[in-house]
Amino acid sequence: MQYLYSWTINRPQNLDDGLAAFFEGQAEERDYYAFAEELIFGALENLDTIDEKIRELARNWDFERIAKIDLAILRLAVFELLFRKDIPPVVTINEAIDLSKDYSTAESRRFVNGILDKLRGELDRPSRSASEG
User: Distances from the Cα of 26 to the Cαs of 20, 33, 80, 123, in angstroms?
Assistant: First the structure.
């Protein structure tokens, strides 16, 4: 989420260089963050689809006015819900709400939960378990 937020604010010329610089400042070696890097690449590779889904679900919100931190949280969570069937939807939603509690506001927490709950309702898979494929 932190990288997606920084990427939203200041996009690097080259994603690989941007990620390398980001991981240099982290407490652990880069390999430790392999799963996070997988999610970052997936979210950015599918950004148009993800942003379109956020626009669709946030009908009464101007996309450009969504707080950048909330947008980073939503992008990560929407990627997981749409493309990572190995992660149970309730896990994704709970983690997104926890991130919004830690990094955003009470209103944002409700906003993020509302968007993701709408998307969860559209999914054709169990909410509490991972799916194959």
Answer: 10, 9, 23, 34
